[in-house]
From TrEMBL:
Protein name: Proliferator activated receptor gamma
Superkingdom in the source lineage: Eukaryota
Entry keywords, A to Z: Receptor
Region Disordered: start-end pairs: 1-48
Polar residues bias locations: 19-31
Length: 48
């Protein structure tokens, strides 16, 4: 539902379950570094 902002991906990455995010964006990059549609991406990457 919230695919417009990529919220499910953000939550999945923050929770550690990158399977959902990687499958919806980039299966070759589970950490989601190549995709940065929202400003929250670098933030969650820093916390990781």
């Amino acid at each position: 539902p919230v695919d417009e902002d990529g919220l499910p991906s953000f939550e999945a990455l923050a929770d550690g379950d990158v399977t959902n995010a990687s499958d919806r964006s980039c299966p070759s990059s589970p950490d989601g570094s190549p995709r940065t549609p929202e400003p929250e991406e670098p933030s969650l990457l820093k916390k990781l």
